[in-house]
Design a protein that fits this description.
CATH architecture: Sandwich
Radius of gyration: 19 Å
Order of helices and strands: HEEEEEEEE
Number of strands: 8
CATH topology: Immunoglobulin-like
Strand order of the largest sheet: 2-1-4-6
Largest sheet: 4 strands, mixed
Number of domains: 1
CATH class: Mainly Beta
Shape: globular
Number of helices: 1
Strand content: 25-35%
Length: 131
């Protein structure tokens, strides 16, 4: 068997053995907490409707540091570090998280203060809190 054929077979087998390359959240929010993922200069989901008393956890799963910052000053996460180390083989540390409990009904727009809407217009989010 030629070396190039052997390498091709090994590459195909490695692809199937390693499974999906879709990142997962290694630090899921606790029960009763709603999760928002920060990755690729987006909040996902970008819009969230919850009831008063619910906690939202933002998790940075992207390669860059980010924040979650209320447009009206209700909260500021500070800098949330990205996941580190491990590459595709695991290890390293999960991305940083920030939790905020919403106690009052209303609309709460937010953004990343490191990547402001003036430069990244789609990098915004909204939490709508119902009674």
């Amino acid at each position: 068997m030629s070396l190039s054929r052997l390498l091709t077979i090994a590459a195909v087998a490695g692809t199937f053995a390693c499974g999906s390359s879709t990142p997962t959240n290694p630090n899921p929010p606790p029960p009763g907490t709603m999760g928002v993922t920060i990755q690729d200069f987006t909040f996902s989901p970008a819009s969230l409707t919850i009831t008063a008393g619910t906690t939202v956890r933002w998790t940075n799963n992207g390669p860059s540091a980010h924040t979650t910052t209320s447009d009206a000053g209700a909260w500021s996460s500070g800098t949330l570090s990205p996941p580190s180390g491990g590459g595709g083989y695991g290890g390293g540390s999960a991305g940083a998280t920030f939790d905020f409990k919403f106690t009052q009904p209303g609309s709460y727009p937010y953004h990343c203060s490191l990547h402001p809407p003036s430069m990244y217009p789609g990098f915004t989010g909204m939490v709508t809190v119902t009674p």
